[in-house]
Request: fold
Amino acid sequence: MIVISNSSALINLVIIGRLDLLREKFGEIIVPQAVWQEVVIEGAGKPGAKEVERANWIRVEEVTNKPLVQLLEQKLDDGESEAIALALEVGADLVLLDERDARDTAESLGLDILGVIGILIWAKKKGLILSLQDELDQLRNVAKFRFNDELYRRVLAEVGEVSGKQ
Reply:
C-alpha cells in the first residue's frame, strides 16, 4: 500500500505519543520534500522533528509535477500541495490529510484520504488503544487539534464508547 502523509498526521500523533500507529497500520509512509522540510528542518526542536527524522519507515520523495504544486498552492500550504501532487504522481492508495480544504481538494481529484481521527478509530477497533475518548481528549487538549463536539460524539459512538460530554 502506498501512503503519502502531510505533516499534520505526523506531528499530532507524535504529540500524543502515537506515531507508531502509522507504522503499525501502513508499514511505510512517504512524505514529500515540503513535509520533511516543515517537520524536520524548520521544525527542529519542535514536536515531531526528531521522531520523524529517526523513523526509518518514513521515506522522503521529491515531487516532479511542479506546475501542479504551484496550482494547488494557490489554495493550500506547501506540504498539503506536495502531498496531494505526490499522491497523484505515484498512484497512492491513500493520502493522510486533516485540514478541510486539503481534504476537499484531494477528494475532488479522486484521492482516498484519512486523517488522525480515522487512524485513532482504526487503532481502537484493532485493540491498539484502550480508550478513543482519552486519545481524542489528548489530541484536543495537548496537541490543540481542532474538531467539533458533534464529530467527537459521533466517533465515540462508532466505536461503542459513550461520551459524558455534551
The first helix runs from residue 7 to 15. The radius of gyration is 16 Å.
